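Reopening this ticket.

The earlier resolution said the output was attached, but the attachment link was broken on my side. Pasting everything inline this time so it's all in one place.
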Amino acid sequence: MTDPLSRRGVRLQPEHGSETAPECRTCGAGAPVDEHFCPNCSRILALGRHGDYFTFLGLPRTLTLDVRDLERRFRELSRQFHPDYFYNASPGERLASLERSSYLNDAYRTLRNPVARIEHLLAIEGMPGATSEAASASSGHAAGKVPPGLLEEVFALNEELDEIREERESGGDPAALHARLDVAREPIDRKREEHEAHLHELAARWDSQSQASPQERRSTLEALRERLLERNYINNLLATIDREAESLSALRPGELDPQ
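Inline output:
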């Protein structure tokens, strides 16, 4: 049996069927998008339009990946695409090796990160991403729409940060204010832990839905996106607390903030 990661190219597993990529520049034969090397002449294929990191690495479109298998595939393809193998090849083949090597690095970097993996899944499933719409927190006040599940925590945190800043500017004791920040951080940290656990649950649900209806799969994707939006918002809130803590650390007890 031929090794699926052989030099003739990884046989990939597209989720929704295989498309036809541009023809081989060397022999003119057509090649499916799930091949790296021409099935007719074995020459490396131009990357063309791709966009699916799972398919490129020969993986099913699931969120729970075997990291060791991912790394094995990455290293095998890295050897196959390495420009040194194409030093004396045609300019087109040298360009193809560089394109595939670069794309492979992007794919590996994305899929080994669980959150980036979800973002990529949303993109290739036609869902708007969460990163571009992540709420930001500026000076302790949330900009943009607050996710409904975080309203209580955001309101309480903004009130506490306002009071801490007023006391800091009035020369309050930095150590005491640090302690208040630590207390204010606790419910946000708990919320982050809850979201991480829920993301794992949703990822497992998605992986079990290969035979589910489109509506059920869509519902899971929407839930994943919602959790990512909230996760991004939570991280911004924690970053705001960290910035306030840095401002306090720059002060000595009884010293006014020079700003």
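Reporter confirms the inline version is readable. The chain is about 55% helix and 5% strand. The mean pLDDT is 82.
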